[in-house]
Write a structure and sequence with these properties.
By secondary structure, the protein is mainly β. It has no helices and ten strands. Strands 4-3-2-1-5 form a five-stranded antiparallel sheet, with no helix packed on it. Strands 9-8-7-6-10 form a five-stranded antiparallel sheet, with no helix packed on it.
Length: about 140
């Protein structure tokens, strides 16, 4: 399922342009995973939301946080509890978290058991595992 991305993956400069609109899930907030203490009593565990913004303190001593929109509720969450939501179907828009298109919005053209073929313009493809893509919902009106 989900292999280890850096706990601060959301502050990677490669994702700066397409950060708002990433779909993420809250994981580890119940304190039952190594290295994760209980956050907000685990009441949001497993919920999915659309990323609005990220606040990077630039420090490991002050929490880096993200603002999410979850069911019309805006919530501020420490980014270490956020994992990417993988694509669900062919033609989904995703942000590539690795590979040739890292940081860019690409389209899923084919889904296999543990990976997908993605492309920007149907001329060059890249094969990414599901944990190296993040579902993307544009923040622009009309998209």
């Amino acid at each position: 399922m989900f292999s280890e991305l850096d706990k601060n993956w959301l502050v990677d400069p490669a994702y700066a342009t397409n950060k708002a609109g990433l779909m993420v899930k809250i994981r580890g907030s119940r304190g039952d995973s190594e290295g994760f203490e209980i956050w907000d009593n685990g009441m949001h565990e497993g919920k999915e939301g659309k990323l609005k913004s990220v606040f990077d303190t630039g420090s490991d001593h002050i929490l880096r946080t993200a603002n999410l929109l979850i069911d019309d509720l805006e919530l501020t969450v420490p980014i270490k509890y956020l994992v990417p939501t993988p694509p669900r179907q062919v033609r989904d828009k995703v942000v590539a978290l690795d590979g040739r298109y890292k940081g860019q919005v690409v389209s899923v053209r084919d889904m296999m058991h543990d990976s997908c073929l993605v492309t920007i313009d149907d001329s060059i493809y890249d094969d990414l595992t599901h944990d190296r893509m993040c579902l993307y919902r544009s923040t622009r009106i009309g998209d």
